[in-house]
Amino acid sequence: MTWQSLTDWWWPYLFILLAGWLPTDVWRFIGVFIGGRVSEESEALIAVRAVATALVAGVIAQLILYPSGALAETSVFLRIGAAAAGFVAYLALGRRVIISVIAGEAVLLCGLLLT
């Protein structure tokens, strides 16, 4: 591998493999290996769950308040309404994530079509 190979067609795929997939899978394997031995009521698992929930909430807040791309062209009220509709659908329709995602996307798409 040389610096000239950075322009080759295969370089982005190798980069994704090394920088994206490999580090992520290492942590997944560690989680599977250790996860079966940790009690659900343990302090460590509660802390991990809290951090994971905070990260997801942060990403959702960033998408709503500071979007990029095509989402940035939508109204903040439409984005908040779509998130709220997804949350209400989650609570009302059996606490299924896929249903809440579909409901939120439906509200967002309908709002885009109407504006």
From TrEMBL:
Membrane-spanning segments: 12-34, 46-64, 76-93
InterPro entries for this protein: Brnchd-chn_aa_trnsp_AzlD (IPR008407)
Pfam families (alphabetical): AzlD
Keywords: Membrane, Transmembrane, Transmembrane helix
Highest taxon of the lineage: Bacteria
Protein name: Branched-chain amino acid transport
